[in-house]
Amino acid sequence: MNGVDLFLLGRTLMKIGEEAMPVEGITPSRTTQAASLRTVLVVVADLRVHAETSVGEIATRTGLPQSAVSAAVARLKEAGAVVTAPDPADRRRVVIRPAPGVSDRVEAVRAAGVEGPLAAALGTEDPARVAEVVAALEFLADRLAPGSAPRRP
């Protein structure tokens, strides 16, 4: 495997992940239509590493336009995944934090499995083969996910 192969694999895995995201009950509002799923996931990834931040800081770190970050934050706020509040030190700055509780939408996303979309991408319905690939992906996620320490020994 070379860098190009790894990059292309990453894109394929990203598409499988998008297909695994539950969309039942989601009706895009005017506020959230501008925030694509990929943009929302990039913002979520940034928030995992920087739990208290602002739209401008996320935009700087991710390279996304501030308008796209704002739309993603609005979508996450509607889903109950984040809360926002004025920064007491600078009232012009809005601080974004993960929500203290877990909303029904966040719970649904966390509970959604990847087995179906992964089986389709692999071209198999063999549960053992799919489980093998899921285990390999979990191994990689434990060691390579940004901002996370290994979750298993």
Helix content: 55-70%
Biggest pleated-sheet summary: 2 strands, antiparallel
Which descriptor suits the 3D outline?
Answer: elongated
Low-confidence stretches: none
| Alpha plus pi helix count | 7
What is the string of helix and strand elements? HHHHEEHHH
- Our measurement of the CA-to-CA distance between the termini, rounded to an integer number of angstroms, reads 27 Å
Spatial extent as radius of gyration: 17 Å
In total, the number of strands is 2
Mean pLDDT level: 85
Summing up helix and strand content along with how strands pair, one would put the structural category as: mainly alpha
Give, in spatial order, the strands making up the sheet with the most strands: 1-2
- How much of the sequence lies in strands comes to 5-15%
Descriptive notes:
It is a single chain. The chain has 153 residues and is mainly alpha-helical. Helices cover 56% and strands 10% of the residues. It has helices at 3-20, 37-49, 55-62, 66-78, 104-111, 115-122, 127-144; strands at 82-87, 90-98. A two-stranded antiparallel sheet has the order 1-2. Strand 1 and strand 2 form a beta hairpin. The relative contact order is 0.12.
Helix/strand layout:
Blueprint: H1 3-20, H2 37-49, H3 55-62, H4 66-78, E1 82-87, E2 90-98, H5 104-111, H6 115-122, H7 127-144
Antiparallel strand pairs: 1-2
Briefly summarize what is shown.
The protein has 153 residues and is mainly alpha-helical. The chain is 56% helix and 10% strand. It has a two-stranded antiparallel sheet with strand order 1-2.
